[in-house]
Design goal:
361 residues, mainly alpha, 61% helix
């Protein structure tokens, strides 16, 4: 099973393995050596969150190691994304089935979940459009979720485990704060509605550790958080000119519940494809297994709720009840989610657990 799923993932991402070809497209520019040499190692105050990693890896690959950009972009961005997405989603799903008693090995269930998480239409459109900051944060989301959830089962962590957890959280926040916030939101929702959540041993200790980890990640990222926070008002005014929320609400509820990116398959910004009925099989597989409720599946109700919340938010102002998202846009800072598709992360995380559970019917 592992070899088969590995072959499927490799076949889908096959164009990435040609070292002589660039993957530059959309939001991912091709960098010439002269451009890389002119890049500052430490970006200015108005730099984006991922600019430091972007500049340093470009200089390391091209200037220091003498590699062409076609190789550098893969070594520091595309291959790490793929490896992290597969590994973190595997661990995340494997852990979700930890209490399951089934003739189907947990490894098989985790492999299926990892396949769903790494090859769905949303992430394929993200990497195809060159949004590699979003992609890297997406790849880290299961790892962040898994690491934080483990704290509430084993709140006593040593220095090394704390450092690893802080590094993972820091990295996701650095690559994309919007996906980071969405991941934390989803984790909190599932934590609060988990069975026996109030009876977890060491709840207070784990809560304190989470606060410290988040504090460390924010402090280390303060070099871009503070300048962007200071310029928030000008950004907010620019982002709210006209009906920005309505403009970016490309997806319909049928798109989101089917984990179908609205730009699939051409991936042309603003060009909405027709709803493909075959994608409706995905929510049937995800929610159908819950019709036969078992003790193990009760723990998955949180993921079912989260999938519905993610599908509802990802459609933005589109029906049903699109006014809710427009009301949310008045919350200070919420305009960073003027593109509602960032909430697809919640759907992907939930379906990576719910769909493999159908194998237990």
């Amino acid at each position: 099973m592992g070899s088969l799923i590995g072959l499927v993932i490799a076949w889908i991402y096959l164009p990435w393995f040609g070292m002589g070809k660039t993957l530059s497209s959309g939001d991912w520019p091709y960098l010439f050596r002269e451009t890389i040499v002119s890049l500052p190692a430490v970006p200015g105050n108005q730099a984006l969150w991922l600019d430091t990693y972007y500049h340093l890896t470009a200089k390391l690959g091209v200037q220091v190691l003498g590699l062409p950009w076609e190789v550098t972009e893969k070594l520091f961005w595309f291959y790490p994304f793929l490896l992290i997405a597969v590994a973190s989603s595997f661990i995340f799903v494997y852990d979700a089935f930890s209490d399951d008693v089934s003739p189907i090995p947990r490894k098989t269930l985790a492999l299926v979940g990892s396949l769903i998480y790494t090859v769905n239409s949303y992430i394929l459109m993200i990497v195809g459009g060159g949004q590699m900051g979003v992609a890297m944060a997406y790849a880290l989301a299961p790892a962040v979720w898994y690491a934080l959830m483990r704290l509430f089962r084993k709140p006593d962590v040593g220095v090394r485990k704390f450092a690893v957890l802080a590094l993972i959280v820091y990295a996701q926040l650095m690559f994309d704060p919007r996906v980071f916030i969405v991941t934390l939101f989803g984790w909190l929702v599932c934590l609060l509605i988990r069975p026996r959540a109030s009876k977890i041993i060491g709840f207070a200790s784990a809560r304190l550790t989470v606060v410290v980890v988040l504090g460390v990640a924010i402090v280390v990222n303060s070099f871009w958080i503070i300048p962007n926070a200071l310029s928030y008002r000008s950004f907010y005014d620019a982002a709210t000119q006209g009906d920005v929320i309505g403009f970016f609400s490309f997806a319909t509820f049928s798109n989101t519940i089917g984990l179908l990116h609205p730009n699939w398959p051409q991936n042309i910004f603003g060009k909405i494809g027709f709803m493909r009925p075959e994608f409706l099989i995905i929510p049937i597989l995800a929610f159908g297994s819950l019709l036969i409720m078992t003790k193990m599946k009760k723990s998955f109700l949180g993921f079912a709720v989260l999938a519905l919340v993610g599908a509802f938010l990802s459609k933005g102002v589109n029906p049903p009840f699109g006014e809710v998202y427009r009301w949310l846009s008045y919350i200070p800072g919420f305009m960073i989610f003027r593109d509602p598709t960032k909430f697809y992360v919640l759907i992907a995380l939930s379906y990576a657990v719910l769909i493999p559970s159908t194998l237990l019917l």
